[in-house]
Amino acid sequence: MSKYLLKGGTVVTFVQGESKPRAYKADVLVEGNSITRIEENIAPQPGVEVFDCENKWITPGFVDTHRHLYMTVSRGDHPDISISEYFPKSFWTVQGSLTPEEIGIGTLAGCLDALHNGVTTILDHFNTAHTPAHAEASLRAVRESGARVIWAPARQSSPTQIAPSVEFANEAETEAWQRAKVREWGVDGGKLRPDGRVTLALAYDVSWRGPIEVHKEWLAHARESSVTLITAHVIGASTVTAWRDGGMLGPDVLFSHCNGLGNHTELDAEAWKALKESGTAVGATPVGEIGMSYGNHVVFDAVERGVKAGLGAVSAAQKERSWKDARL
C-alpha cells in the first residue's frame, strides 16, 4: 500500500459542525486511498514518501458540476463562438461525426485533464450518446480513468438533417435503445463500478418538445432504474416552471447555466422559489457562459435565494480549468 505525507502546507477545508471553511497549518498523511491523519508535525515514517508543501495550499478535490468530458478530443474547437453558432458549426457537425473510438479517447483524456487540474469529481453531461457503441465507449473510459464520475448519458438523438430544417428521423429507434440501456446500466443500484466511484445519472434536454406526460414518464423510468441524478441545460424560467408543474423537480435534479434567471422578472422569482422549495441545484459555468453569450452567471443569485449552486468548466473545447470559473 502506497503512503505519502503532505508536509508543512496550509489545509483549506470544512471542519465537522461548522458551516464555513477554515484554513490552518497541518500535515496530511495518505495511506492507500484514504486520508488517515490531518495534524501538525506528523513525523515521517520509513516507507512514506514526503512532499514539501511549505507555502502551498492543500484542499479537497474540486467538484465540477457541468462538464462534457468527450469534448476534450476537440480541444480549441470553439473558444470564441456564440451559442447560436455552436449548434450548426460544432455540435451537429464536428461533435456529431465523432466515432466511438474518438469518444473514448476524448472522455479518458478529459478525466485525466480534470484530475491534473485538481478536479476529482465530475458530472459528465454526455450529450453524444448517439449509438450504444458511443455510450459504451464513454462509459468504459470513465471507468478506467480512476476519477469519481457521475456519468449522465443524454436522452436525445442526433439530427439526420440540419438544413433547411433540423430533423430527427432516428428519434423512435434511439429512444428505445436508450430506455433499455438506462435500465441495464442501473441494475446495480446506479453503481457503474463495484467501488461506486462511477455512478449513473441522466442528461435530459428534450423537455422542450412533446407533451409533458412523456417527460414525466421518462424521468420516472430513470428514477426507477436507479439513476442517481438528473441534469439538463436550462436558460430561462419557463423551463423551470414547466418541470415544476410536471412534478419533475427534486433534490436529485441539477440545472446547468440558468442565466435567464438573472433578469429578475416576476417569472424569474417564481422559478427561483420552485428551485429552492424542491431542492433543485444550479451548476454555473461563468467563463463558458460569457464566452458563448449565454449571459451573466447566476451563482450569487442562487446563493442569496438559498438555492444550491456549483461550478463547472463545460469542456476543454473552450478551456479546461474550473478554477478559472471560481476566480471569475
From TrEMBL:
One of its GO terms (molecular function) is hydrolase activity, acting on carbon-nitrogen (but not peptide) bonds. Residues 57-199 form the Amidohydrolase-related domain. Gene3D superfamilies: Metal-dependent hydrolases. Coiled coil: none annotated. InterPro entries: Amidohydro-rel, Metal-dep_hydrolase_composite, Metal_Hydrolase, MTA/SAH_deaminase. This is 5'-deoxyadenosine deaminase. It comes from Trametes pubescens (White-rot fungus).
